[in-house]
Structure formats: structure tokens, C-alpha cells
Design a protein that fits this description.
The protein has about 260 residues and is of the alpha/beta class. A hairpin with a 2-residue loop joins strand 4 and strand 5. The longest helix has 17 residues. The radius of gyration is 19 Å and the shape is globular. About 0% of the residues have low confidence.
């Protein structure tokens, strides 16, 4: 479903602030893969997601999504192929628009815009059922402005919006980092369900090693623009936090007295 072939990205090349963010990175995802991504600050995690989303072009390499080379495709033309949920609950929705209007925008993503606008009765009934399935009571607040929702509710809505068009790839960029533990657990549970029920291929960045182990079918660890660990299946299920810390120290050549380098923000 996704092929990253030797992609590289350097910021501020040739200056004192030069930063090699990605170095000949290759990653292949099969359809239905749910991959968690961990690594220290500056490891290249968000740079990789931004490169996939088209936020900025890569310097070298190719990005192929479901057989289509999207390397040179601008960000707005990838919108119908890729769904994304950001760390900030304020992103990904239009706060001054109603909940049902946000869902309608998501459903029309990538389509040509005409003069007709509004939410039809059929759409409204569909959105009601989708929101009811979240179990947050939002089906009774469809005309409320999204900006009035809590952070967890907004992330749940953003998840729903990101998956509404059955994207080829779902990008979850530390989407629970700004939430309290209980709300984060609820959003992660919802993420699992949406990915599974829609049979989506997903990449999830997290700083929480427990979440990285417990969610998804595959885990990759990044360091200094490269993937240094890729585990799946039973090997992933048997991993512990301490084993991950030890593997990071071994593979990255970094000795740590705690897991702060890998885990903390």
C-alpha cells in the first residue's frame, strides 16, 4: 500500500543550521498494516509523515501509494488519498462550523465544489449513526459548533472525519499527546476500531512506548533520520518497555539511565 524508497530530506542545506532529517529511508507497508512509530526528538518521525502528506518535497527517493507515484503530487491533491489527525485537537476541524457541517466537508474532500451547499436529510441521518457509534453523545449535538467540544471529543470527530472517505493511508501524528490519560485511552481505543472496521492502512507516531507496543500490528523505531528497528507479530506482542529502551541504547549507541530520551517530549 505504501512504499517509501530511499527518501532523504535536508533542511537548510549548506548552512550552519543544516539538518539531515531523513537519510535514504525505506519503508514498505502492506494493506491493513497499522504501524506505530517511536523515537527520540529529532529522529525524523514527523518529517516522514509530512513528506508522505506532501507538506514539503523530499530531496531524493520516491513515495508510492497504492501503486501511484505521489512523490511530485502537491499536498492538496493527496487530500483524497490520505487522512490525517494532528497532535493539536484544534487542528483538523473548522471550529466555527457545526459538527454536521464539518462532517459534510470531510465527505466532500477531494471532490469538485459546486454551487450547491448544505447537509441533506440523508447525510444527516448517516452522520447521526456515525456519531452515535462513537459513544460520546455527540449525535445529539450535531448543530453545535465544533469549537465548543472538549479536546477528546474533537479528536474523536477528527478521527471520524479522517476515515470518512476511506483513505488509502491514515496518518496519526501524536494525536493523543495533548489529552489526559483517560481521554487518550478512549481515543486510542476508537483509533483501533476505526482502523480495523474500515480496514485502513495506518501510521501512528507516539512517544508512549506502552501505546506503541499495545496498538497496531507492527512497530518501527527511528533515530537520526533512519529506521533502526522494525518488529511485528509475536515479537512485537512480547516486547516490554525495558526491552525497547535497551534496544534503543544498543542500536542507536546511546546509553541511558532512563527512558526519557525515547519516551518524553
Amino acid at each position: 500500500m505504501l512504499h517509501l524508497e530511499n527518501i532523504s530530506k535536508t533542511f537548510n542545506p549548506g548552512t550552519i543550521n543544516e539538518k539531515k532529517a531523513l537519510i535514504e529511508l525505506s519503508l514498505h507497508l502492506a494493506p491493513g498494516d497499522f504501524v506505530t512509530v517511536i523515537g527520540g526528538n529529532g529522529a525524523g518521525k514527523s518529517t516522514m509523515l509530512n513528506a508522505i502528506a506532501g507538506v514539503w518535497p523530499v530531496d531524493e527517493g520516491r513515495i508510492v501509494l497504492d501503486g501511484q507515484d505521489i512523490t511530485a503530487l502537491p499536498e492538496h491533491k493527496r487530500a483524497s488519498l490520505i487522512g490525517r489527525v494532528f497532535q493539536d485537537p484544534m487542528m483538523g476541524t473548522a471550529p466555527n462550523m457545526q459538527l454536521e457541517e464539518n462532517l459534510a466537508l470531510a465527505r466532500r474532500r477531494g471532490e469538485k465544489r459546486g454551487l450547491r451547499w448544505g447537509v441533506t436529510k440523508l447525510e444527516r441521518a448517516d452522520y447521526y449513526e456515525l456519531l452515535k457509534d462513537l459513544g460520546l453523545g455527540l449525535e445529539d449535538r450535531m448543530t453545535a459548533k465544533v469549537g465548543l467540544l472538549s479536546g477528546g471529543q474533537r479528536q474523536a470527530v477528527t478521527l471520524l472525519m479522517a476515515a470518512l472517505k476511506q483513505p488509502k493511508l491514515l496518518l496519526l501524528d501524536e494525536h493523543t499527546a495533548a489529552l489526559d490519560p483517560a481521554t487518550a485511552a478512549k481515543v486510542l481505543e476508537l483509533s483501533d476500531r476505526i482502523v480495523s472496521e474500515n480496514r485502513l492502512t495506518a501510521l501512528m507516531i507516539t512517544h508512549n512506548m506502552t501505546d506503541a507496543i499495545q496498538h497496531g500490528n507492527r512497530l518501527i523505531m527511528m533515530n537520526e533520520g533512519r529506521i533502526i528497528l522494525d518488529v511485528s507479530g509475536e515479537e512485537k506482542r512480547q516486547l516490554t518497555k525495558q526491552q525497547l529502551v535497551d534496544k534503543f541504547a544498543q542500536l542507536a549507541g546511546v546509553q541511558m539511565e532512563s527512558d526519557e530520551v525515547l519516551l518524553s517530549k
